[in-house]
Amino acid sequence: MKNLSIFIISILLIILICLPTPSLSKQNACNKNDEKTLLNIKKSLGNPNILASWHKTLDCCQWDGIYCTLNTGRVTDVNIFSASDNISAQFPPEIGDLPYLQNLALINLTNLYGQIPSSFTKLTRLNSLAITSTSLSGPIPSFLSELKNLMFLDLSYNKFTGSIPESLGWFNRQVLYLSNNRLTGNVPKSLGYVNFTKVDFSENQLTGDLSMFFGSNKTIRVAHFFRNHFQFNLSEVDELPESLWDLQLDHNKIYGSLSAAFASESLQYLNVSYNRLCGKIPQGLQKADETSFFHNRCLCGSPLPACS
Ligand SMILES: *[C@@H]1O[C@H](CO)[C@@H](O)[C@H](O)[C@H]1NC(C)=O
Ligand SMILES: *[C@@H]1O[C@H](CO)[C@@H](O)[C@H](O)[C@H]1NC(C)=O
Ligand SMILES: *[C@@H]1O[C@H](CO)[C@@H](O)[C@H](O)[C@H]1NC(C)=O
Ligand SMILES: *[C@@H]1O[C@H](CO)[C@@H](O)[C@H](O)[C@H]1NC(C)=O
Ligand SMILES: *[C@@H]1O[C@H](CO)[C@@H](O)[C@H](O)[C@H]1NC(C)=O
Ligand SMILES: *[C@@H]1O[C@H](CO)[C@@H](O)[C@H](O)[C@H]1NC(C)=O
């Protein structure tokens, strides 16, 4: 009896081992045009070590940082992250020749320079674009507005200059991160019509008004505007979006006072320090940290010292 069961188990094991393993590479055999484009990108980037796996001996859907659609082998994702700082090249314009691209991330390529090429307008399926911690410079191109499916745009930690293009507000977006660049000028009013969930413009030199992001029927949850030159009357903001739970306005030139709207229970993180605010902090913020309010012109009342 015991011998029989061992025999059966052995047979089962042998059958299992001999079954052909399902071949993934066959399922998403890389599209030849996409393979060629990726090899051109690799060449443009100077054949860096981090792209060593990008080689014809392996199906391109298996290369590091590359994902394809299962059936057609079209490249949908390109992710290039580098900690070793070895790529010194212009932005590869060949990126525009990946017509099925949905997600592109180029992160920590600190010697990648030049501008965002206009070939980007061909990436009509692009849903998410992250170019962060590079040396890309020049303006944030207004042609990015042609990418109607672009919901997530992260261009933080680069060297972009000029103002935020008005056209970025023409289509819906969810996330817009532009922090730590050298952006100047006013934020275009058009951005007030976009149903953002997260916006980060911190650490630039932006000026003017932010009131287009406030109001009761907005969807914004996280809004980081600290360390800029924003200058407007906060008294006029008497309604905040119910969705808003993180608002950081510190280190600007914002004046006026805090309306009762700022004591909303949904607002978990608020920082208005280092501005030019005055008047009494509204009821309901007594438990907040005083560093959220300090260094203003004449803001007073708990958690700051009492008003005189
Ligand atoms: C940089 O890339 C070159 C080849 O392009 C390679 O010889 C060198 O070892 C790399 N350096 C680092 C730090 O990875
Ligand atoms: C980028 O570099 C920073 C510091 O060198 C590191 O903390 C971070 O994890 C890197 N990010 C990626 C996506 O490689
Ligand atoms: C934001 O959402 C509202 C309501 O759903 C919609 O009417 C409006 O068109 C959206 N805005 C954009 C820029 O798509
Ligand atoms: C939001 O409010 C503004 C003015 O208060 C109004 O013009 C707009 O139609 C509202 N949008 C939605 C989606 O309700
Ligand atoms: C700010 O707005 C409030 C309310 O509209 C107004 O009373 C106040 O005079 C304004 N402050 C300045 C400096 O314009
Ligand atoms: C508010 O911002 C100031 C200035 O950046 C900072 O020193 C302080 O710690 C912040 N407070 C909170 C509660 O985040």
From TrEMBL:
Domain of life: Eukaryota
Keyword set, alphabetical order: Glycoprotein, Leucine-rich repeat, Membrane, Repeat, Signal
InterPro entries: Leu-rich_rpt, LRR_dom_sf, LRR_N_plant-typ, PGIP
Chief localization: other
Annotated compartments: Cell envelope; Membrane
Family designation: Belongs to the polygalacturonase-inhibiting protein family.
Signal peptide: 1-25
Leucine-rich repeat-containing N-terminal plant-type domain mapped to chain residues: 32-69
Name of the protein: Leucine-rich repeat-containing N-terminal plant-type domain-containing protein
Gene Ontology, cellular component aspect: membrane
Pfam families: LRR_1, LRRNT_2
